Amino acid sequence: MKLSFQLNGRPTEAECEAEETLAEVLRNRLGLTGTKVSCEVQVCGACTVLVGGRPVRACTTLAYEARDRSVLTIEGLAQADGSLHSIQQAFIDEFAFQCGFCTPGMIMATKALLDENPNPSDDEIIHHMDGNICRCTGYVPILKAIKRAAEKINKSK
Ligand code: FES
Ligand code: FES
Fold first, then answer.
1. What does CATH list as the number for 2-76?
2. CB atoms within 10 A of CB 145
3. Going by CATH, does the domain composed of 86-155 fall within 1.10.150.120?
4. Other CB atoms closer than 10 Å to residue 91's CB: what's the count?
5. CA 60 to centroid of ligand 1, rounded, Å
6. Fold identical between 2-76 and 86-155?
7. Which ligand is nearest to the CA of 102?
8. How far is the C-alpha of 147 from the C-alpha of 151, rounded, in Å?
9. Ligand 2, from 47, 91, 95, 97: best to mutate by most atoms within 8 Å of Cβ?
10. pTM over the 0.85 mark
């Protein structure tokens, strides 16, 4: 089937099979390998992307569920001039990754959180991010990065 949707702000079409996941289409058909796949059973959050502004697990979302909708992946966060999004920069500034495999999903989940709640408390951040697993960092730098990103985004408003 042919799939049409807005991908990172651009009208996009892709061929896909009915059973293909959004992660498979993004990575294998469209070459957007920033979205990572690990558990493939909706547990780790590595594959988090935004569909219609809401975070979804691309490993268990069928691609056709995104038809005619807007999809935002990690590749769509940087500015046109290549400068990083405040969330990406905050993760770098706080050393909030080691192997980096969880990082695109963490950043996309953070984007969804801060779009909805620009001033989250620590508890709200922890609650929102509890579906994103990191085996490397111990989470403290990620919490700091999310708070730093929130501050920077709020200052720029
Ligand atoms: S790869 Fe999708 S939740 Fe783990
Ligand atoms: S930085 Fe390695 S899993 Fe999170």
1. 3.10.20.30
2. 26
3. yes
4. 26
5. 8
6. no
7. 2
8. 6
9. 97
10. yes
**pLDDT tens, 58-102?**
999 999 999 999 999 999 999 989 999 999 999 999 999 999 999
Can you give the pLDDT at residue 157?
Answer: 85
Cα(46) to ligand 2 centroid in Å equals 9
Low-confidence ranges of the chain (pLDDT < 70): none
The reported pLDDT for the residue numbered 12 is 98
3-state secondary structure the chain: CEEEEEECCEEEEEECCCCCEHHHHHHHHCCCCCCCCCCCCCCCCCCEEEECCEEEECCCCEHHHHCCCEEECHHHCCCCCCCCCHHHHHHHHCCCCCCCCCHHHHHHHHHHHHHHCCCCCHHHHHHHHHHCCCCCCCCHHHHHHHHHHHHHHHHCC
Is residue 133 lining ligand 1, measured as CB closer than 6 Å? Answer: no
- Single out the residue of 104, 99, 85, 103 nearest to residue 149, CA to CA: 85
